[in-house]
Structure formats: structure tokens, C-alpha cells
Design goal:
It is a single chain. This protein is mainly alpha-helical and 202 residues long. A hairpin with a 5-residue loop joins strand 1 and strand 2. Helix 3 crosses helix 5 and helix 7 packs across helix 8. The chain is globular.
Length: 202
């Protein structure tokens, strides 16, 4: 990938093909991670946790996480944001599909870091999710049934399910922890105020 569009509209193949971790999914749901209640679907749970982790990673580098409708910075600023989020340089992960389409991804950058945190094995997740999310195109390309293609990729499907469950459990833990922190903040603020008032009255 030699062309590097701006990060808020960047159709990175690895993200587009993997679907559940699309950039749109990371951006459109707002600044704060949603309440990890029962209404949150498994896909949305993983997306919210991915956004939480990437936001933390970008913020730690002094960067503002991208959001829809934001004013773009200079070209240099946008390049820095894109590199920090998606990774820079040559793509370390690559998989050529039976349809002839090649999917690539970085092992550096905040998104890759979030995937390692959630899935445990970013490289394997990249491989199996790319295969699983392209079963229908492969069936159409081979002019055969989806069931037969799935059967031919049973190992990838099993690993996809295992890693997906790992990510979902990790995502629920992260979001629950974040929610507890949000609830504790007003209590901590009240305690600080009480201490300050006690000092003033002494």
C-alpha cells in the first residue's frame, strides 16, 4: 500500500475485509465507550473495547483520536496520526486469498496493539479472520457451496471462534473496569471536596 489516504476515510484492506474491526466501527460510535450492558452485541462489545484501547494508545502519544466531523490537521499531522493508528512502513502481515486478493496489515501501531491485547495472537487472528470473512467470495470464485468451503477451512473457523471468544471475554472485562472507574470518579471527587472543606474549617 503505497497510497496513504487520510485516516478518517482510509479504506485499509485489512480493516475492510475483516469487517468487525472496520474503521467505521471504531469511529462512528462517539467519544466514550458505550455502557457494556446487555444491549451491547458481541460485535459492538469488541468494537468498543478496540476503540477504548486505540484511544488510550493515541492519547499516550499526545494525539487526539479521530472522530467523525473533526477538522483535519496539516498533512504532517494526519500522516503522524495515521502511522500511529495503523502502523508505518512495510506491512508485516500478508495473506493471499484464493480469489487472488491480497490482504496486508501492520504489527505496529495502536490498532495492532489493541488486537494483541484482545485476541492474544494478532498474527493468527489476522490469518483466520481474513479467511473466515472471505468464505463467501471464495465459494463464488470456486463456483461451489459455502458449506463445502467452510468444511475446507474447518481449522481456521475453529481458531476464529476460539480467538473471538477470547477477545469478547477480554473486551467485557475492559469495559466493565472502565465503567467502574467512571462510577468511582464522582465518589473520589466528593471525598476530595470533603477533605478540602475539613482543612478549611481547621
Amino acid at each position: 500500500m503505497t497510497h496513504r489516504p487520510r485516516p478518517w476515510a482510509r479504506p485499509l484492506p485489512a480493516l475492510t475485509v475483516l469487517g468487525a474491526l472496520s474503521l467505521a466501527g471504531l469511529l462512528v460510535t462517539g467519544c466514550a465507550a458505550p455502557d457494556p450492558g446487555p444491549a451491547l452485541s458481541p460485535d459492538d462489545t469488541v468494537k468498543a473495547a478496540t476503540r477504548l484501547l486505540t484511544d488510550r494508545c493515541l492519547t499516550a502519544q499526545g494525539l487526539t483520536p479521530p472522530r467523525p466531523g473533526r477538522r483535519p490537521g496539516t498533512q504532517a499531522q494526519e500522516e503522524r496520526l495515521s502511522d500511529a493508528l495503523f502502523g508505518a512502513g512495510r506491512t508485516e502481515l500478508s495473506l493471499r486469498l484464493p480469489t487472488g486478493y491480497s490482504v496486508r496489515a501492520h504489527t505496529d501501531g495502536c490498532l495492532a496493539s489493541a488486537q494483541r491485547d484482545l485476541y492474544g495472537d494478532q498474527r493468527r487472528w489476522f490469518q483466520v479472520s481474513t479467511v473466515v470473512n472471505n468464505l463467501k467470495p471464495e465459494a463464488a470464485y470456486r463456483n461451489t457451496s459455502l458449506a463445502s468451503v467452510r468444511a475446507g477451512h474447518r481449522t481456521e473457523v475453529a481458531d476464529w471462534q476460539r480467538l473471538r471468544e477470547h477477545a469478547l471475554n477480554r473486551a467485557r472485562h475492559l469495559l466493565a473496569h472502565q465503567e467502574r472507574q467512571k462510577r468511582q470518579q464522582p465518589i473520589q471527587h466528593q471525598k476530595q471536596q470533603a477533605k478540602q472543606q475539613e482543612k478549611e474549617t481547621q
